[in-house]
Amino acid sequence: MTLVNLLDLDLEALGAFCERLGEKRFRATQLFRWIHQRGVADFDAMSDLAKSLRAKLAQAAEVRPLAVVSEQASADGTIKWLFDVGAGNAIETVFIPETDRATLCISSQAGCAMACSFCATGHQGFARNLTTGEIVAQLWHAERALRARGLAVGAAQRVISNVVMMGMGEPLQNYAALVPALRVMLSDHGYGLSRRRVTVSTSGVVPMIDRLRVDCPVALAVSLHAPNDALRDELVPLNRKYPIAELIAACRRYLEAAPRDFITFEYCMLDGVNDSLAHANELVALVAERADTRIACKFNLIPFNPFPQSGLHCSPHERVLAFAEVLRAAGIVTTVRRTRGDDIAAACGQLAGEVQDRTHLRERAARRAIGIQLQRPAQPAHAKESA
Ligand code: SF4
Fold first, then answer.
1. For 42-71, how does the pLDDT look when each residue is reduced to its tens digit (9 = 90+)?
2. Minimal CA–CA distance to 71: which of 84, 58, 88, 62?
3. Whose CA is nearest to atom 7 of ligand 1?
């Protein structure tokens, strides 16, 4: 008999599972706390559950962790795990400690089919969606491992204060598995994270942004990376299906469900590609396209982490600062992401795991990267602007 992986179940589904075992629904809450708050996988160790229930669980269920291939710690405290998800595929999960928060960056797919040209994962191609259990298991493992290092804080003795779905994969292309996983993270009996401390990052799957707004409106980050369709079509191929105007309209609708929130626009700074002052001014016009209301947003400028196949380079630091200044001068909150964990290839856009590409994206992405290179001006456009 195949055992049910309890990491696949949100509290509602676990309640239904308990009923199928002939138990009261409320037992699910106890079980859920043991698994997610105390990190216990062994039913025998769940001392306040009746022995008869523990016996039934042992027959029908398991808490299935991911197999750890490696754990690497960066000099700056960042930790990266590589997990084996079978059939030659491995995914990456990254812990990023900061003074005021401790963030876990979680993968949603083995590889990614979106093929963004500046992203190492996108160059690897796509193997498969992760299950809910495999998404949750990354948090479950990280929390346990970090507690074992004595890093837990506060009355709840938790380590991880924020989750970002920004690892490998496009989370909104794995919607059915994503939403139950988010519910486990948000549940008071699970990880107890507030809605604003869980962020889903998307390259712009417009219909799914609308569904997320209804089903589970957590914080939303959008990988924008270009201020116009011509450039974004090249950098984020999904733009050809859902162009910028549709994406921005979906962001506005999202904020109607969460009016006190804002959208975080991620913008990877690529030398000579998307980093001129003209691009910055275009962005300002884009988010203020309607005179009455500027979209509530923040920009996060990400210094590009080069990898050999991309053919792209990071913008010089002064240009990143000048770009940020244009946005700030227009009243837009703008941060420049500090690169973390680059000594262990854990920085943004560097996650590459191991992927058995079923989609031949690698070859196509390589061809596109060459195309972008050819379009770059011989001399960067902003050489004049900064002169
Ligand atoms: S940036 Fe995100 S959506 Fe684009 S290829 Fe990388 S993982 Fe996929």
1. 999 999 999 999 999 999 999 999 999 999
2. 84
3. 169
Q: What is the pTM of this model?
A: 0.91
Checking if the pLDDT of 39 tops 60, the result is: yes
pLDDT tens track for 168-211:
999 999 999 999 999 999 999 999 999 999 999 999 999 999 99
**Tens-digit pLDDT profile for residues 3-19:** 999 999 999 999 999 99
Pair 382, 114: CB distance under 8 Å = no
Burial pattern 195-205, b for ≥16 Cβ within 10 A else e, equals eebbbbbbbbb
Q: How many Å lie between the centroid of ligand 1 and the Cα of residue 239? A: 12
> Nearest to residue 298, comparing CAs of 198, 224, 211, 382?
224
Ligand 1: does its nearest atom lie under 6 Å from the Cβ of 133? Answer: no
Spatial separation of the C-alpha atoms in residues 348 and 343, rounded to whole Å: 12
Whether residue 92 lies in the annotated active site: yes
Among the atoms of ligand 1, which is closest to the Cα of residue 112?
8
Query: 233, 239 in Cβ contact below 8 A?
Result: yes
- Packing angle, helices 175-186 and 11-20, rounded to 10: 90
State if residue 169 touches ligand 1 by the CB under 6 angstroms criterion: yes
224-236 pLDDT per residue, tens: 999 999 999 999 9
CA 113–ligand 1 middle distance (angstroms): 8
Q: Is 10 in the pocket of ligand 1 (CB under 6 A)?
A: no
Do residues 112 and 122 lie in contact, with contact meaning Cβ atoms separated by under 8 Å?
yes
Atom of ligand 1 nearest to the CA of 109: 7
Does residue 348 have an active-site annotation? yes
Q: How confident is the model at residue 382 (pLDDT cuts 50, 70, 90)?
A: very low
